[in-house]
Amino acid sequence: MEQDETLNKIEVRNLKKSYVERRSKKRFLSQCEPQEDCKVLDGLDFSIPAGCFACFIGPSGCGKSTMFRIISGFEKPSSGTVLIEGKPVTGPSNRHVCVFQEDGLFPWLTARQNIAMGLTNAAEEARDEVEEYLELVGLSGFGDHYPHELSGGMRRRAEVARALITNPEILFMDEPFGALDFVTRLQMREEMVNVHQMFDMTILFITHDIDEALQLGDKVIMLSDRPATVAWDLDLDFPHPRDLTAGPLKDLRKEIYRKMGLHLAL
Ligand SMILES: Nc1ncnc2c1ncn2[C@@H]1O[C@H](COP(=O)(O)OP(=O)(O)OP(=O)(O)O)[C@@H](O)[C@H]1O
Ligand SMILES: [Mg+2]
Q1: N or C: at which end does the chain have fewer Cβ atoms within 10 angstroms?
Q2: Residue having the nearest C-alpha atom to atom 7 of ligand 1
């Protein structure tokens, strides 16, 4: 068992999190009585090997973002453990970078300056690096634009570049492309496949989009409704680009829809 743990980049063991319901009256949607411990995560267990692109899906409000905040060290669990390279997480690390669902660029800085914020060294040679990353995410020529002068997709690209330039060991992405239009989302998906092949990093990626998870993931972890448990831990050993309309991926897609309580004709 111990040997296995050293092979994995991340080990999550019996992770539980509850919040105290502070409101004095029971709310319509809340399953918790006032002042009661409101269970969000109910014993999560999974392992992420180094270099894995792990996608997480699950119903809205089941605790995905909470789980990310705990694994990335921003929040403490109620019980259970998170090990990164066999060591318990005690707080955030500059080797682990998060890209959140909301716009995270500094509005008073240009795209170039935002990306440079990912660097600790402000030296002259850093400039070339910033230009390289602008090019990598297709933003060459837009370095001097402020966030409000960029489209939603471009802002996401700048955020991805700012995360990548730090050369993180673990990249956490919480529904990073949720607010983008369909075509831009497909483009970003392709870019993420390329990024993962180019950089030696472990990626944890939350999405509501089942197809996105199936196209990107080496692993798809499906969480149940709150309080969340792991409903399905699925390894996907298929080459890219992936066709979801045929073969075993088509069947897996159907099965995920079914497990999520969706009965669409697919
Ligand atoms: N700081 C907090 N205090 C109290 N309750 C919280 C806190 N943070 C999260 N919650 C509750 O925990 C539950 C899970 O929230 P979380 O944001 O992790 O869900 P999620 O799966 O990321 O949802 P979504 O898919 O909509 O982003 C929600 O019911 C939320 O109200
Ligand atoms: Mg969330």
Answers
A1: N
A2: 19
At residue 135, the 3 state secondary structure works out as helix
Same domain, 39 and 140: no
How many A from CA of 99 to the centre of ligand 2?
12
> What's the pLDDT at 11?
98
Q: How many residues does the chain have?
A: 266
Amino acid identity at 232: W
Tens of pLDDT, residue by residue over 223-236, are 999 999 999 999 99
Backbone angles phi, psi at 66, to 5 degrees: -60, -45
What DSSP string describes 54-71? EEEE--TTSSHHHHHHHH
pLDDT of res. 23: 64
Q: Which of helix, strand or coil describes residue 4? A: helix
How many angstroms is it from 105 CA to the middle of ligand 2? 19
Q: What is the pLDDT of residues 136-168, one digit of tens each?
A: 899 999 999 999 999 998 999 999 999 999 999
What range does the domain containing 142 cover?
A: 103-167
List helix spans (H) across the chain. Answer: 2-7, 64-71, 111-116, 124-136, 152-164, 182-198, 210-216, 247-259
Compute how many other C-beta atoms are within 10 angstroms of the C-beta atom of residue 259.
13
Q: Which of 64, 67, 102 to mutate to test the pocket of ligand 1 (most atoms within 8 A of CB)?
A: 64
| CA–CA dist 149, 46 (Å, integer) | 41
Residues 88 and 177 in one domain: yes
Ligand 1 atom closest to 22 (CA): 4
Number of domains into which the chain is organized:
2
